[in-house]
Amino acid sequence: MPYLVGICFVTTIGGFLFGYDTAIIAGCNPFLESQFELSKDGLGWLVSSALLGTIFGCALAGSIADRRGRKPTLILAALLLLFSAVGSMLVPLFLARPEGFGWIAADRSLAQNWLVAARLIGGVGVGITYAVSPLYIAEIVPSRLRGRLVSIYQLSITLGILFAFVVDYFVLHAAGEGAGAAVAGPTPSGLFRWLFVDELWRGMFGTEIPVAVLFFLLLLLVPETPRWLTSRGRESEARAILTRINGPQQAEKAMGEIREVLGQAAGAYRELLAPHLRIPLLIGIFLPMFSHLSGIAAIMYFAPNILNEAMASTEGSFLGAALIGVINMIFTFVAIWKVDRFGRRPLLLIGVTGACLSLACVGFLFLIGSRWVLVPLLFYVACFAFSYGPVCWIILGEIFPTRIRGRAAALGAFSLSLTSFVITCTNPRLFEALSPAGTFFTYSALTAAAIWFIWRFVPETRGRSLESIEKHWLKNKK
Questions:
Q1: 2-475: which CATH number, 3.90.550.10, 3.30.390.50, 1.20.1250.20, 3.90.650.10?
Q2: Residue 196 carries which DSSP code?
């Protein structure tokens, strides 16, 4: 068990990085908007550029993971995230040069394009992590623990989001009154002042570097998944890993199930079009899509901006964003605690219904000009955190055959990322065109459609081996 926990811990650092990369820019937005003199469309593009990279990452991840292995694919993601963090922090100078610090100087336009490019590269890393980390965990853990440990991956995402919001707040607070904080701290100088006061968004981006380095180094220590090794004829290595995780008797049983299913698998995208996989394909595309049509990405990327519509202070909106991160993490524990007891389907139906109602309430409070918008917004985040957040990834890691699971998971992540890109890119413009109230009513209506879809198509997979789930689809082949 300690060996398995250690492996899953390393993999979930990828989830932490994903969450951190998602949320860290939320604190940067007001300062990027001011320093780069961005329009609403320009802000939407700058923020969502990482999500465009995520789409490419998801498109690449399945093929790389199935051909080269899950572990090398995650290592590539770690390197891309590290490169992005360094590049985002060291955008060329376009304002005053820090005393005694020499760096590339450029005009504002070039600096902005540099930042967009760095965010795109990081997005590719996020997309790969998005698709492969839950897949890795699903393939290496026993079925009795799979739901809980894949949920821990989602917990690591929420923890990354929370840390990013908290770091944003403390960087803002340390910067003092010049950055909009209520209390001024000691005045720094030189390079530190440039990174954490004058252009504090640089320091916010740079805080991702140590985590990316740790992720890369620890990935060198974890094994490849037994299912992928067996699919490549490396059965002795697969058996050794399974034995260390489950013991000799369970390892042999698992190897037998893996061999039986692998003998039937074709290992190509076209297999997803087979009659017995039509329903899994439908779930794999639409369940992730619906999860982000609810607006979660826009809320996480623009939390301070959204709350600023109802609050009077910059610091207050940053504190509200941090509270969103806290609620997001706390209610992910509900999924970890209950997903292997209550099942995937009940958590989805309860959570998505709650999300639909709370989004409508946010819209109503914006409509009447209430300052209590944060309350139903927190309720929405709680509902998302114990349903869509973890359960979507658990299901995507369970319903597809082994040899195409990487491609199928990547397809689901691609669907989610594309939806997330559209929602995030359009959020500032929707706020301007439809008002905040109209935007949240729209998200609520889209979430209502998801309730019917889940009720009609999503099966219960709790407590079943990956191989038995595939046999279920084959048995129901028409």
A1: 1.20.1250.20
A2: I
